[in-house]
Give the backbone structure.
Amino acid sequence: MSSIMRGTTDNAPDDRRPGPLLPEPDDDGAPFWEFAAHGELRVQTCAECHEPRFPPRPCCPRCQSFATAWRRMSGRGRIWSYVLPHPPLLPFYAELAPYNVAVVELTDAPRIRLVGNVVAAPGAPADSVDPALLRIGAPVRVTFDALAEGVTVPCWLLERP
Amino acid sequence: MATRLKDATAIVGIGQTPFARQLPSSEKTLACHAILEALDDAGIPPSQVDAFASYTMEETDEVEVAKAIGAGDVTFFAKAGYGGGGSCATVAHLAMAVATGQAHVGVAWRSRKRGSGPRPWRDTRAQLPTPAQWTRPYGLLRPADEIAMLARRYMHEYGATRDHLFNVALACRNRANQNPAAIMYERPLTREMYMTSRWISEPLCLFDNCLETDGALACVVVSAERARDCRRRPVYVHSAAQGLPAQHHGMVNYWNEDPLTGPAWTAARHLWKRSDLGPQDVDVAQIYDAFTALVPLSLEGYGFCGRGEGAAFTEGGALETGGRLPLNTAGGGLSEAYVHGFNLINEGVRQLRGTSTAQVPGAATCLVTAGEGVPTSALLLRS
């Protein structure tokens, strides 16, 4: 069985320092991460009926076409909800806690909602925004953060911090 | 005419081990204790068992259980998916097998060492089928985080407050305080304790989360005809349903049209369709409560109130004894034991036998639900 995640977990002892869990893409998700590595937010879209879908999958649930395209998004969105996790957490996250994790609804495709951290500046950590500034509906825009060498994930900046 | 499930089968035996943060026995041993107790309760010898049903995240399989207890030839075995969403499906699968003549005596069980064993969310690579690449890197790690996301959205949309969540936690705790088998027996909860407790994942605090428990439970399902000759008063499986809604995504159900109408809504539609009864006929409910926030969502899903009214429904003692819908009368996952919801099934049976430690006078119907947020299942039991 291929692991969905790689990175350090507290039940997989190894020599590495505790770090974030890194996305290990499956076949369907790989293009998303490749575009992210180039600073582009793209969402899988049906090439026949143009319906966007997330998470990525082999065929379109609306028209069953296997023809897919990756549509570039403006990177604008709104906070749909957010949480502030506290320990007990995996070591890397316990050190950051409390941090935020948000679900962001994309302006271009409102039913496409991406999980991500709201950060104070590009490259800043998930605990860099005062939680008092977070609210549902707050407009955000995408930025990209290198979690590890060669691994880039979308994060979010408040439009009006 | 096709065989119908309605009232064709009954639960005739229940069994359980003690519940504790730490029990010395293995999960397999605990499972055998609970199953043998359930068979004894029914007055059926283990050699007559020919069907088993369990649900995923169960470590002990039916091969081990069957040979340990001395079952005969087994002709039906099933495992329902999605962890806590599968509890009621075990009884539903056995009921189908018995009603259609595939088997005669079915046993469903759950054995967990959740209290002393590793917490399942520690292994972030072997979680429920959440799309980990889209959530874990950001630190959305545990079921509590995943459900807290829905809880905050729910509170925002409908004006639900922490006091509403407290109403749920308190009702469960109050019933556990009456139940000597409950882990929280003689340990009352106050509003101050709740409001000042530590956060787990804001907006959910410590008391919004279920216990972590070692223990096992089991029940025995036979035909309604055979049930009449068993030791205890039969509790009939009146209706059963599973639910995996269109475009559902598991615990991180953030990507469909309406993430706040979860699998409960789908299971409920089919549960009521196959029933002679409706939500207004339910005397007592055992609603899956791994997190308090699942209860208002389920109250809406199963039709006890309208969309967005689940939080308000909890007001005025509605979930307490004597209230509009007495809830989780043994204490539930929040305060009796967290055994992936199977304790809710056994408590449903006790209510309809009239033997609960928080008995609802004259209870004749009980709704039991499995985990909301994941593909789920539900039972409508009647005496």
